[in-house]
TrEMBL record:
Its main location: membrane. Gene3D superfamilies: Vaccinia Virus protein VP39. GO terms for cellular component: endomembrane system; membrane. GO terms for molecular function: methyltransferase activity. This is Probable methyltransferase At1g29790.
Amino acid sequence: MGSVSLKIGDGTARFQSATVCSSAVNILMIFSVITTNLFALYAFTASNKHHQSQHLLLQHAHKNFSLISEQVQLILNEIDSSQKKLAQMEKQLLGYDTIDLSRPNIAPELKLFLQQHQLPLGKDSKTGITEMVPSVGHSCEKSSDLLSQYMTYKVHGSCQDDWILAQKLILRACEPLPRRRCFAKVVSKVGLYPFPDSLWKPVANKTVNWSGLSCKNFQCLNGKKLNRECIGCFDLLNGYESQRFVKARGKNDFLIDDVLELGSGGIRVGLDLGGGSGSFAARMAERNVTVITSTLNVDAPFSEFIAARGLFPLYLSLDHRFPFYDNVFDLVHAASSLDVGGKPEKLEFLMFDIDRILRPDGLFWLDNFYCTSDEKKRELTRLIEKFGYKKLKWVVGEKIDSLGSGKSEVVLSAVLQKPVRV
């Protein structure tokens, strides 16, 4: 920095010059430090403000995200609720949702049977369905305890001998019944006759399941009046059963051959409603006409007896819609089984189903229908007239009640022809 002298003169000037330079440098250094600190302070302040701004933005974004999430969750909840409501409506329409499967007394096999099964390839393009739904009667809910009892068994084992329980459910409108995974009781069918000898040969007692019935043989049944269509109807050798439909006992008894002559286009297939032991179908079989007999085993083994005769029994109540396509039968035969009781609308539903399965120009044979009152006769007459059937035969007479009351009752017999509707 140069010499420092105590001399006055040039030396003093040199000291002052050095002092000024040193002060300038110091001022510059101080300015640099201050400037640096100011920049650092600015940088720190700006950075702090930036971080605060980012923090506020993050808080605002998080708040918005929370609001959006809440709205999305509300929408998802609404969708889920709507799907459940639609599924409930669908199940109500299908008729099986009313069985509460959460009950502790519901049999596991019943729960398994009622499960929905998704189609492996998704929605079917022809039917629009996405899952297979098991078929079970809507009214089964009213008999859920009996239904669970029916569905309680050893899987892949032998079923209990509980046909009486099954029929009780059917009579309570629990129809169709669910399928089961057990083997039905086997009854030996040894001794059956070949067709057509089987039509009028006696059926052996050992070929029938007598459990749950008061009678244990056909000799016992022959002495009972089971219903108007079955008084000694299991006796094929003696009594009136072998003469029915071929020999008249009164003006209301039409003969099969006379009715067949009325059939336009020929009679080939028919349905007999509540046909007792199957004698109507047997007489038709002799004339090369196939007849299905609907029946239940009420107090007697009707179904097995009909099958043993080589005929077709249909185990079905009249409350069930007929499992046949439209316009397929040439003839429908019905007697007092047509009296389903209850409100007039119940008989009207049945008559419309009969009309559905009967072909145009087909015959509806009403055979000795007991009119318990004049009002009953008028209701039936008005109902028949609604369908516009042609009356080929119409006979109103009186008969002594065949069940033993001794009273004379009005009976109606008619052969009606279904019109060709356009």
